[in-house]
Design brief:
By secondary structure, this protein is mostly helical. The protein is 79% helix and 0% strand.
């Protein structure tokens, strides 16, 4: 029982530390301080590695790092982090907001491909993202509008 409580306390401390670092990283990203944002988000990712294997916190941090690299026009690095975020999101599809997280990650990578004029790859990801959300939310849900709008802009 004591070991179990200690393990829970460590996980809770790691989540709090991750949250602080991740939020600071996002604020620095929004302020355009890319080097500082990258450092905070990498520290947040290191903390997130201590959390359970399929913990969705990693998705948010990986997506943040992808955006840091995207804004610096380091597109190969951005693509790598987007793909890692998708990998974690795919494992969490059955969990709360899992399909939405996956769709968001797919759309983020699609936007990167669109920026690089890789339109066929962008289209495939956008279709997959819309399909993922449709399965989770239902065909009449308003949440599908963004994905369909992205596809319309592509065409």
């Amino acid at each position: 029982l004591t070991l179990c409580l200690q393990t829970q306390a460590l996980a809770q401390n790691a989540q709090l530390e991750w949250q602080k670092l991740n939020e600071e990283g996002k604020q620095l990203l929004q302020a355009g301080k890319m080097a500082e944002a990258e450092a905070k988000l990498k520290a947040a990712l290191a903390v997130a590695q201590k959390l359970p294997p399929n913990d969705p916190h990693k998705i948010d941090t990986l997506s943040g790092l992808a955006e840091v690299y995207n804004r610096q026009n380091k597109l190969a690095e951005a693509e790598n982090y987007h793909k890692q975020a998708i990998s974690f999101a795919e494992k969490a599809v059955g969990e709360k907001n899992g399909a939405s997280n996956l769709a968001s990650c797919l759309n983020n990578l699609a936007a990167l491909y669109y920026k690089q004029n890789k339109l066929a790859q962008a289209e495939a990801l956008m279709i997959r993202a819309t399909s993922t959300e449709e399965k989770a939310l239902g065909p009449a849900d308003k949440g599908l509008i963004a994905g369909l709008s992205n596809l319309a802009q592509l065409y």
